[in-house]
Amino acid sequence: MGKASTIRWHARFRDAGEIAPKPAGGDRSPPAIEAHAETILEICRAHPQIFLRELCDRLAKQGVRTSTSGLWRFFGRHGITRKKGIFMQTSSSARM
Length: 96
Fold this sequence. Notes:
The protein is mainly α and 96 residues long. It has a domain at 31-90: Arc Repressor Mutant, subunit A. It has 4 helices and 2 strands; from the N terminus they run H-H-H-H-E-E. The protein has helices at residues 3-16, 37-46, 52-61, 68-77; strands at 80-83, 86-89. A two-stranded antiparallel ribbon has the order 1-2. A hairpin with a 2-residue loop joins strand 1 and strand 2 (86-89). It is elongated.
């Protein structure tokens, strides 16, 4: 263990009484894109073969700022996959 790590762990023990690493995973706050979920899903229902870049551009015209990777994670959270450009709900009988 490095000197800096030892200092951080000692400070954590002194302040919180814990000898464990902090939780990993980055930002835990709900993404702002969720406020626009219905708009995104509406566009996808109207244009099922829309590409993420096109969807991102349409949302930008409506004042919604996001990225293609942000949209990808949004669809993952909602159980929606893309198959050859078509948006599909995840099957409940899908293989595990």
